[in-house]
Each structure stands twice: as structure tokens, then as C-alpha cells.
Amino acid sequence: MTTWRIRDFHPSDLDGILHLWSAMTESGIEPVYSLSEVLASCQADFAVVAVHGEDIVGAAVGRAAHEQGWIVFLATLPEWRGRGIGTGLLAALEHRMAPLGLAKLSALMPDTETRIDAFLNRGFKDVKNLRFFERQIPVQRAELGPLAQLGGRVLPRNLWDNVAGMQSEKQLLERRLVLPLAEAELADEFGVVPPRAVVLFGPPGTGKTTFAKAIASRLEWPFVEVFPSRLAADSEGLAGALRRTFLEIAELEHAVVFLDEVEEIASRRAGDPPSPTQGVTNELLKIIPAFREQPGRLLVCATNFIRALDPAFLRHGRFDYVIPIGLPDAEARRAMWNRFIPAAVLAEVDVDVLVERTEGFSPADIEFAARSASQRALEKAVYSDGGQSSTNGRRGPTTEDYLEAVSETKTTVSEEVAAAFLEDIEELARV
Ligand SMILES: Nc1ncnc2c1ncn2[C@@H]1O[C@H](COP(=O)(O)OP(=O)(O)O)[C@@H](O)[C@H]1O
Ligand SMILES: [Mg+2]
């Protein structure tokens, strides 16, 4: 080991850079920029290497962002450290970047990087009290095309917190679905096989769609809803269009796939000749096992009529869980009323009595009653004074407005449906 010299990077030096990268990570230093970023910068931005004969013993890579330049990689093989190679590489890199007229040259180095001499020698200042933040963007560039094609999107981050009440359902979904999917490595350590497909069932308006979206939001996975009614018009027919749609979904890195009113395409096989949806049901029965083989995605099927489903559809092996989403309990109704009543009048409204009077209401029913009370109160306030446009000092709906709206709201879920739901839980739920 005698002399080293510095020269520009050549495309044939990639192996040498890889070697430096592994030497660095093996010595316990986790570089800030990813390997693919560094390799891209070697080719497109600025890179210099230190060589001994043919061997690469060090490298520095930089890139410019407007007025600021960034050192994205600086490494020397361990056995070559302490010979000023780092300082030499930084000098050469700065020289190459000089024509850009940069105002500042910065470097982010891991805490474990102890060889700061190269930077200090070159006049860099060790800036204290800085923190490094980074966030993984949920959808990668290559997925934007397929995602748009599927009409999928990344939902706002707060949907999970916005689900009012429903503590026991929320806890169940959080533990059984979100935890193993979000913490895949931890789940694996414990031998937990992450869920791939679930059914949510319950009377209309209880929040099945809301929960499916909230799960996607919680995981930060794109939400893709599959609409059989739209696919039916496809020239390939519904079965073919479903197959194609799921092939497109397979191109995504992550997705929560939502199939609502699944009983419409997976109903009980009956009659001879078989019903026209039979081919579609069969297709779906084939699609699910294939879907299950791909990690990083979750199929959520929802139905208001779980008993109408083909028993083969619910058989073990297709769905990890069959989860009831029922009418909200008192606590959930309270949370919903607290959400729907305008903050300015919340303190004056008797929420207890509303919670009590809305037993048997679905979230959708409560939302409807709250909205109509607001509308009614607004109209009363504005028009009660012979059409004068003033609010007569009223600031919002009163308990009476709410009670009136509640008594006029027809609940979606009849007692019979509620009783049938309890039977369904008994017979078909799997949590
Ligand atoms: N836990 C909840 N908190 C607040 N609003 C809810 C909740 N669950 C449902 N909603 C509202 O009730 C309505 C019906 O919910 P939805 O999820 O569409 O029911 P489903 O899919 O079971 O028929 C939606 O407007 C939704 O925003
Ligand atoms: Mg729905």
C-alpha cells in the first residue's frame, strides 16, 4: 500500500462503489442516502474516486439542489483510513462542483460516522442541534400509472381517528388487521401470518365502508374500490374484467382493495341452469387464493346480507376473519353526537337524552337526524321572523330541534334485521 490518487468516476467503477458501500455497512455505518440514490448520482451528478492501481479505495459523490450542494456519499476502505484520502476526495469533489456557483455545500452523516476529520480539514462546520426527519412516501413512482388506472388513491391520514366510538370494533380491527400488516417483521417474529382478506358484515349504514377506508388510511396504503356494477359493462364480461382488475392490482406494492355488496357477485349457487352470476362467483373464488399469495395487500369485502353469500365463499382458507360491524353502543352514539353537534351549542344540548333516544340508530341515521336538526334550526332562525334574514340571536340547534329530528327519522335497521344480525354473528362471525 503505497500511493493513491484521485480521478473522475467512470461507469466501470460501479463495482468499486458497491464494495465501498458494503465495507461501510459492515462496519456498522448506515448511510443516509440509499444505494440506488448514490449510484444514480454517480452517473448523473458528480463523483470522484480514490484509486490505488486499479482498485477503488475511496469515493465521494455529490449533487446540487439549486444553490446548495449535498455530499451524498463519502467513504474510504477501512484499511486506507487516516491517510487524508477523505480530505482529498472532498477537495476534488468541491472543485468539480465549483462551476455551478453553489452557495453552500452540506453533508448529512450518520451519528455513527466518527471520522469527521475529512470534513473539518476541508473547512466544513459541524452544525449542532439539527434533527433529521424523513418520511416514506406511500406510493412509489412506478405505481402511479396502475393506481390511476384503477381509480385508487391514498386517503387522508386522519380517517381512522375520525371513526367515532365503535371502540370494540376499532380495537379488533387494530389488533387483528392493522398491527400485523403495519408491523410485518414483528408479526413474523411471533409467527403471526398477516391477514390477506376479511369480510365485514352488518346492517346497512353501520360503518363498513367507513372502516374499510379507515384501515387504508391507518396503514397509509392506497385504497382501491372494485365496482362490479361498472365492470359488468366491460367487453370481456364481468368475470373477465374482474380477473383483469386483480391482475392490475397485483402491480401495486401495497393496497387495501374494497369490494362492497359482495353478495351481489358471490351469492348462493341456486337453480338449474345456474344463475348468470355463477361464472362471476367462480371467478372470484379463484381470484381470492391468488390474491392471498401476494404480501402487502388486504382485500376487504363488505355485505349487508351475509346469509346470502355462497357458503364456499366463506369457507376457511379464503378469509382470515369474518367481522361483524353492528349498531353503535351508547358510547359510540355519544361520540357521534359530540361530533355532529356544532361546538358553539354543544354545552347547551342535552347529549345524554339524544344518546338514549337513538338506541337502534345506525351512524348514518344519527348523521341524518343531526343534519336535519341543523337545517331545521337554521330555517327557523332565519325565516321565523316573517322572512327577515336574521338569526334572532339564535346560534344553533337546541335539544328540542334534535329530539324532533330524531323522532322523525326512520331507522334503517328494523328490530327483525337487528335480531337476524345477532343470529348471523352466532353462526358466521369469525374474529
Ligand atoms: N363510527 C362512525 N363515526 C362517524 N360517522 C360514521 C361512523 N360510522 C359511519 N359513519 C357515517 O355513517 C354513514 C354510513 O356509514 P357507511 O360506512 O357508509 O356504512 P355501511 O358501509 O356499513 O353501509 C357515513 O356517512 C359515515 O360517514
Ligand atoms: Mg357501505
Automatic annotation (TrEMBL):
Residues 4-188 form the N-acetyltransferase domain. This is ATPase AAA. PANTHER family: 26S PROTEASOME REGULATORY SUBUNIT (PTHR23073). It comes from the Bacteria. Keywords: ATP-binding, Nucleotide-binding. Transmembrane segments: none annotated. Belongs to the AAA ATPase family.
